[in-house]
Design brief:
This protein is α+β, with helices and mostly antiparallel strands.
Amino acid sequence: MRPIWSGAISFGLVTIPIKVYPATESHAISLHQFHVADGGRIRYRKVCEVDGKELTSEEITRGYETAVGTIPVTDEDLDALPLPTAKAIEIVAFVPTESIDPIRIGSSYYLAAEGVAAKPYELLRQALERSSKVAVAKFAMRDRERLGLLRVLDDVIVLHGMRWPDEIRDASQVDVPDVEVSDEEIDAAIALADTLSGRDLGQMHDEYREALEKLIEAKTAGTRPEPVETPAPASAEVVDLMAMLEKSVSQAKASRTGGADATVHDLPAAKKTTKKTPTKKTAAKEAPAKKSAGRKPRSA
């Protein structure tokens, strides 16, 4: 695996040279576009709208379009920007993990250090672990300054790109349903949630990709896989929530038979229904609760 960026972590007066590696990879199957009539491949080409010429990457530059024309911005211009984060991941704060809302988390990267950088790297890693906190940092990558989050995962410091506060849309723009649910229905939903707790996320896999691979293999062999019955789409009609919850718990119990670590709960006994009307949320009255950015790092 080759690094995609080199720089340093700036931790007060401590500088830690590091290399950045992508922490994730896509296993999606790429499907191309073809002309139905003759099977010709459909491609996207970079063509100048003035002379109609197809251009190579070396012939293309960037710029910002204004009312008086396009202002060119070259790689040299970007490299010369007076940013302290141009080649550094500058730590600006340490905060509790639970204070970071997951909605802000973006791309993830592994940070590696070697040679003289090994000791300060280990110092920062253990400081993050023992404090049970994460570091908020600023860094510049791919032509823009970003906000980042540093935490420890399996003895490695991980950098998560984060969205700036003004990039998160106000949740109050979303209409919140104004409906009534009973205490019995809420307790039943919690019982179902308990039944589904404790599952090993490491065992989950992409069933859509697997099905697509089988389809491609079958068509290559001149056959077609047997169709699989898929569940009907959710209906907008009024349903019996308690009946659906009871059925869901039964199915969850059946699927966990023979190897579940989590406790399986029965639905609560029927009791007198008490109606509750949820309070409509607004941005001015109450801010959304913060959630953890990830599981607590393991100790070395």
